[in-house]
Amino acid sequence: MIYLLLSIVTASALNILFKIFGKRKLDLFKVIMVNYVVCFLTGQWFSPSPVGWTEMTHATWFTYAAILGVVFIVGFNIIAQTVHYFGITVATVMQKMSLLLSVLFAILAFGEPVGIIKVTGLILALGSILLITYKEKAAALLHDKANVTHHWYLPALTFLLSGFIDSTLLYVNKTGIVLPTDDHFITGLFGVAAISAIAYYLYLRLLGRTSGMQMGELLSGTILGVVNYFSIFFIMRLLQTGWDGSVIFPMNNIGVLVLSAVTGIVLFREHMNRQNRLGLILALAALIILGLAT
Fold first, then answer.
1. Which domain holds residue 262?
2. What is the C-alpha separation between 36 and 58, in angstroms, rounded?
3. Residue 201, burial from CB neighbour count under 10 angstroms (0-12, 13-18, 19+)
4. Nearest to 273 by CA among 140, 135, 177
5. Model-level pTM?
């Protein structure tokens, strides 16, 4: 249970940091790039036995880490485009609703049981996601025919990539590709993400499409990197507890939504409409019911 709570807290902290960065008008790609470099360095510092890059590339898990590292960068750009054309609410819904893919993968690939308690909790979880994230402006954007016609693939890719990341993390844990005592997988994953981000940044610099690094972006990326590393560290630890993935991902996603919503009210004085408040009630019910399925 402690790893679930820590995973929810760190993932919610990421949402809070992005809200702060958005208010400060920072270049998010530069912040993300620094973040991945810091994630890699945090992994090396936190590990009791730091491992060299050559050794990591020869590990059995490196192919999966490399794929996820690239997907992290591609996914960031896809999500940014989804936010641009459809709004942050739609992007959030697509990311959280991707638990459908990870739950389905856990059931089909590893034969995890499906009972009435788990199904009920999952239905409540999905309903709570839609209600907590409901905003009138987002609904209006969905009725913009230009967005739906020309950019429909962006929310779809956000959904698919988010589900792919969760399913891959589940797979490497369930199959023993990543051992419970081996945190080098996380370090390697962020190392590939950092290299990919730096390469893309240099490419943009050559084209004159971006500027140099500012101190605010460097400091923000450093803070984000430490939190981001532990958000993945704790979800990996959670997956290694033996809990069903079809329970972990719904509980984690709903927990993050609830804590982020409450934090938004307390810190940012965000308003919650009737649908949002009903969503919080459903989310709490879903967490209790899914907890019974563990």
1. 2-292
2. 21
3. middle
4. 135
5. 0.91
